[in-house]
Amino acid sequence: MYTSGTTAKPKGVLITHENYLFAGHSSVLYQQLTPDDRYLIFLPLFHANSQYYTSMATLVVGGTIILRERFSSTDFWNVVDRYQPTATSLVATTIKMLLEMPEQEKEKGHPLKRAGYGLFVPYPELLTFQERFGISLYLWYGMTETITTNIVTPLYEEMVRDPENGIVSIGKPGLGHEVKIIDEDGEELPYGEVGQILIKGPSLMKGYFKNLEATSQTLQGGWLHTGDSGYMNEDGFIWFIDRSKDLIKRAGENISSIEVENIL
């Protein structure tokens, strides 16, 4: 699988069958899926989300996959009414689009009760979405190099916000994972201080395809250097701040500034 990775130039990420299985089993746990669940998937299948967090989870638990070619805000509730999904995965863009739609009769009384999502959504919009549609939202953080969602919002806990800025936490370390925040010298930072997010766990890539230099920079001492900055509080909740690399976010995708320069 190819990805922009934790640095700008696209690289090939080496992923094992064990990685896929762990991603599936851990995602079942995070989302509390059962064989009776019907998962609505419309995000691109080349993306880590649709491969690891949703498809693999549904296959592992023995549920049903409802696979759609694309997302349509105007047809979304018709799809829900027709196929009766119980879970789905969203991004900030789709959440905003659904909130901007006029109220519809089919957005009430449906079986769709939970949805994972990625990227920043303001807390008031999250509350409005949950109250209007009756869908519980949980935030998750992961990347192609880490395979599964390494930081997740537990379904059994309320969304935690920073008391000073009101931003919602991306969650706590997932199953079998450790997370720490370091400074530019590689020293672990105290709670509340911003630095690079490092992840250690049972589901990391083997390395980058034919790129030992990039592999040695990203994987050090069992820790994966994400290239993302954030901070952690005393309860283990983590906040994402920004990418430390030059990447552009567009519709949930990472676009390298180098790629843009090459196109231009």
Explain how this protein is built.
- With 264 residues, this protein is α+β, with helices and mostly antiparallel strands.
- It has a single domain (2-263), classed as ANL, N-terminal domain (Rossmann fold), CATH 3.40.50.12780.
- The chain has seven helices and 17 strands.
- It has helices spanning 17-31, 48-61, 76-83, 92-100, 123-133, 212-218, 257-263; strands spanning 2-3, 11-14, 38-41, 64-67, 87-91, 114-118, 136-142, 149-152, 172-173, 178-182, 195-200, 207-208, 219-220, 223-232, 238-243, 247-250, 253-256.
- The strands form four sheets. A seven-stranded mixed sheet has the order 4-3-5-6-7-8-9. Strands 10, 11, 13, 14 and 15 form a five-stranded antiparallel sheet that branches. It has a three-stranded antiparallel sheet with strand order 1-2-12.
- It is globular, with a radius of gyration of 18 Å.
- It starts with a strand and ends with a helix.
- Mean pLDDT is 89; it is low at 1-7 and 246-264.
- Residues 1-209 form the AMP-dependent synthetase/ligase domain.
- This is AMP-binding protein.
- InterPro entries: AMP-dep_synth/lig_dom, ANL_N_sf.
- Strand percent estimate: 25-35%
Strands of the widest sheet, in order across it, are 4-3-5-6-7-8-9
- Full CATH superfamily name: ANL, N-terminal domain
Structural class, by secondary structure, is: alpha+beta
CATH class descriptor:
Alpha Beta
- Portion of residues within helices: 25-40%
CATH architecture: 3-Layer(aba) Sandwich
Can you tell me the number of structural domains? 1
Order of helices and strands: EEHEHEHEHEHEEEEEEHEEEEEH
Distance between the termini: 26 Å
Strands, count: 17
Largest sheet: 7 strands, mixed
**Shape type:** globular
Q: What is the average per-residue confidence, as pLDDT, rounded to a whole number?
A: 89
Low-confidence segments:
1-7, 246-264
User: What integer value in Å does the Rg equal?
Assistant: 18 Å
- Number of continuous helical runs: 7
